[in-house]
Write a structure and sequence with these properties.
The chain has 214 residues and is mostly helical. It has 12 helices and no strands. The chain binds fe (ii) ion (2 copies). The site of one fe (ii) ion (FE2) has 8 residues, from helix 7.
Length: 214
C-alpha cells in the first residue's frame, strides 16, 4: 500500500517517511511504523475518512514512535525543552513517555506537516484518553493489531476485529469502540500480572468509551 497513488497525491508523506527512516535506526521499529501506517490506511478506507483525515492519520502513524527508545535522561531533556509536563504517573508507566514526547516532537520538529489532531493522536496512542477522535482511535488500534506484531493476543485481536467489521449489518464504529475496550482490558491485565503500574489515562479512556456506547 505504501507505494500506491496515495503517496503520490501527498508528497509530504514521503518527506516525513524519509525523515522518520533517518531518525528510527532500529529496523524492526521502522517496519512496525510502516505496518501501523498501512493498517491505518486500510482502516481509513473502511471508516470512510476524507482525504484530509487520511493524510492526518498517516502522518500520525509515521510519527507515532519517533521518540521510542530514548533514555530517561533524554526524556527529561525533552521535557525541559518542550515543557511536556511529565507526571509521576508517566514515569511509573514509562511506555507513556515516548507517546507524550513524540507528540511534542511532532508539534515542534515537524510543525509544517502536523496539527493538533495529529499530535493528540500521537499523545494518546499508548493509553488512549478521554474524548478521542476517530483519528486517535484508528491510530490506537492500528498500533496494537498491525500484522507484524508477534504476540498472539495482538494477532487474535486483529482477526476478531476484522471479522467483526465484515459481519453483515455491523455497526463498525461500535466494533471499533468495543475492540478498543478489549485492548485496554488486555493491556491493564498484562501490566497488573507483571507487577507494573497501569496509567490512569487508560482507565479514563475506558470510562469515556463506555459512556459513549451505553
Ligand atoms: Fe508507541
Ligand atoms: Fe507503535
Amino acid at each position: 500500500m505504501r507505494d500506491n497513488d496515495f503517496w503520490g497525491r501527498h508528497p509530504c508523506l514521503n518527506t516525513v517517511k524519509d525523515e522518520i527512516s533517518r531518525r528510527i535506526s532500529d529496523s524492526f521499529r521502522f517496519e512496525h511504523t510502516l505496518a501501523v501506517n498501512d493498517e491505518c490506511l486500510l482502516l481509513a478506507d473502511i471508516f470512510g475518512l476524507s482525504d484530509k483525515e487520511k493524510t492526518q492519520l498517516s502522518l500520525a502513524a509515521l510519527l507515532h514512535d519517533v521518540a521510542k527508545g530514548l533514555s530517561i535522561d533524554e526524556f527529561r531533556a525533552l521535557d525541559e525543552k518542550y515543557r511536556i509536563g511529565f507526571t509521576d504517573d508517566d514515569f511509573a508507566s514509562p511506555a507513556v513517555l515516548h507517546a507524550k514526547a513524540g507528540a511534542k516532537i511532532a508539534e515542534y520538529e515537524f510543525s509544517e506537516y502536523t496539527d493538533r489532531d495529529i499530535c493528540k493522536a500521537i499523545r494518546e496512542h499508548t493509553t488512549g484518553d478521554e474524548n478521542m477522535s476517530l483519528i486517535s482511535k484508528l491510530l490506537f488500534i492500528s498500533d496494537y493489531i498491525e500484522p507484524t506484531r508477534r504476540w498472539e493476543i495482538c494477532q487474535r485481536t486483529r482477526e476478531a476485529f476484522h471479522s467483526e467489521l465484515k459481519a453483515p449489518g455491523a455497526d463498525i464504529f461500535r466494533v471499533l469502540d468495543t475492540s478498543i475496550i478489549k485492548i485496554l482490558d488486555q493491556t491493564s491485565a498484562h501490566l497488573e500480572e507483571s507487577g507494573r503500574a497501569v496509567h490512569p489515562d487508560l482507565f479514563k479512556c475506558k470510562d469515556f468509551i463506555l459512556k459513549t456506547i451505553e
